[in-house]
Every structure is written in structure tokens, then in C-alpha cells.
């Protein structure tokens, strides 16, 4: 019996956060405000959070967030949308004072 398995995502946005200066304040805002905003990205297929990942090479960040889209155009459109701009402003204004963060958009190619 054939199954309609969705195609794997072809784009990923990864954000890493260094250790917050105030973990409680960072986590409260992140969980109560920021994550609900992130879930509103248009076309977002999946979001995963990894707290305190184990370093393999170099120092480990405090938090790694991965967000998947169908393709790079959908990811770029989401980041450039009204909610995307609200999410970026929220991160800069309300998370930036507690932790340095970096983001990278990835085109996912099969190896």
C-alpha cells in the first residue's frame, strides 16, 4: 500500500544562543513569548530546540534552534514577512540583552 510521505525539507534556519547572563529571564521570555511567535512563521514545517548541546569541536552554545521549510525561497519569504520582522525585533530587543545569538540559513542538499 503506497504512502504519501512528504518530501524532506530543503531549507533550514539555525539559530544558536550563547549562555544567557540571566537564564531565568531569558527562558521565561523565550518560552512564553518567542516560541509562540516562531510557530507563526509562514510555511514553517518543523522547529526543534536543543538545550545545552554537547560540544564536538569548539565551544558549545547554550541553545540551538532549527527551523525547516520546503525550500530556500519559502524560508526567505518567512524571514521577510511581517511576523518574521516581529520575531527578529523580539529577539534583538528581548533576548539580545541576555545572550549573543547567531543565525544561518541553509540550503539542504542530499549527499
From TrEMBL:
GO molecular function, one term: oxidoreductase activity
Residue intervals passing through the bilayer: none
Domain EthD: 20-92
Origin superkingdom: Bacteria
InterPro entries tied to this protein: Dimeric_a/b-barrel, EthD_dom
NCBIfam families reported for this sequence: EthD family reductase
The protein's name in its UniProt record: EthD domain-containing protein
Species assigned in the record: Luteimicrobium xylanilyticum
Amino acid at each position: 500500500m503506497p504512502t504519501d510521505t512528504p518530501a524532506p525539507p530543503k531549507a533550514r534556519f539555525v539559530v544558536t544562543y550563547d549562555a544567557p547572563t540571566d537564564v531565568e529571564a531569558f527562558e521565561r521570555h523565550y518560552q512564553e513569548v518567542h516560541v509562540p511567535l516562531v510557530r507563526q512563521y509562514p510555511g514553517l514545517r518543523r522547529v526543534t530546540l536543543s538545550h545545552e548541546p554537547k560540544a564536538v569541536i569548539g565551544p558549545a552554545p547554550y541553545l540551538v534552534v532549527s527551523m525547516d521549510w520546503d525550500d530556500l525561497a519559502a524560508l526567505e519569504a518567512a524571514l521577510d514577512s511581517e511576523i518574521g520582522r516581529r520575531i527578529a525585533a523580539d529577539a534583538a530587543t528581548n533576548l539580545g540583552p541576555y545572550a549573543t545569538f547567531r543565525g544561518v540559513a541553509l540550503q539542504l542538499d542530499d549527499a
